[in-house]
Design brief:
By secondary structure, this protein is an alpha+beta fold. The protein has one helix at 45-62; strands at 11-14, 19-20, 26-27, 32-36, 41-44. The chain has one domain. Helix content is 29%, strand content 27%.
Length: 63
Amino acid sequence: MAYTRYKGDPYWKRAKVDGTSADGTPYRRGERVFFYPRSGATYAGDGAARASAEFDELASLEG
């Protein structure tokens, strides 16, 4: 998708520590997670894919 990126946009990254995502899904160190830097929310598994798709859809509506 081609859209303007802004500071604070969520992004995919590798988890540095084990944890639990915002929707309650546990994840392990090294797994790919979708991270929202402004709120600190992290999503893993299917929730991460849904959060990423939702963000991409909303970002494409911007311009």
